[in-house]
Structures are given as C-alpha cells and as structure tokens.
Amino acid sequence: MEQQKLIKMNIYVDIDNTICETIGVEYEKATPIKHNIKKINLLYDKGNNITYWTARGTVSKKNYYDLTHGQLSSWGCKFHKLIVGEKPAYDLLICDKTKRIEEI
After folding, report:
1. Which residues pair with 40 in a beta bridge?
2. Model's pTM, two decimal places?
3. Which element (helix H / strand E) includes 68?
C-alpha cells in the first residue's frame, strides 16, 4: 500500500477578533479566544506552516511586534512566523481561498 503524501498548507491567520477579542486599537487589553487558538494549533500540529499576520500598526506606524509576540506566546499559540504592521488595513477581503475561523 502506497503511503499517502500529506499536503502541507501555508496558512496566514489574522489575530484581532479572530483568535482574540479586541476593541478598536486597545491591543494591550486583547483577550484570547481559546477555542479558536486550539483550532489553529491543531493545524500547526498537523504540520501546516502557520503565519500570524496582523495590521496592528499599519496605519499608526506604531511597532506592536513585541506586544503581539508576547501575547501569542502567553496564549499558547503555535506558529512559525509573525508579521506585524505589513498587512493592509481593509474592511473586506474577497478571495477564493478565504475562510472565517468559524469554518475551520
């Protein structure tokens, strides 16, 4: 029997209001959504490449990398890469590959 080759995905995950509850730009007060983090960690455990990608600081130009990395670590998030402030600030993303956390 031939062993099935596993397809690893390169997954980009938003942070605010996806894996944590955040009000506006009060990132310091963000609280984790544990069941959503568990979903992403499971994708990581299955061998997928996880990149957290956030617009924090995109508009204000404030550097939120250390705060965000610390939050992800303290919340038990598993990931390979964190990108902060390089994501466009948008209101709606239309893409054939997009999923909401509720669909995972």
Report:
1. none
2. 0.86
3. helix 65-74
What is the pLDDT at residue 48? 96
Q: Tell me the per-residue pLDDT of 39-63, one tens digit each, with 9 for 90 and over.
A: 999 999 999 999 999 999 999 999 9
Residue type at 44? Y
CATH of the domain at 42: 3.40.50.1000
87 inside domain? yes
Domains held by the chain: number: 1
What one-letter code names the amino acid at 81? Answer: K
In angstroms, rounded to a whole number, what is the distance separating the alpha carbons of residues 87 and 97?
17
- Phi, psi at 12, each rounded to 5°: -100, 130
Structure confidence at residue 91 as a pLDDT band (50, 70, 90): confident
Residue 4 lies in a domain: no
5, part of any domain = no
Say if residues 82 and 72 touch (Cβ distance below 8 Å). yes
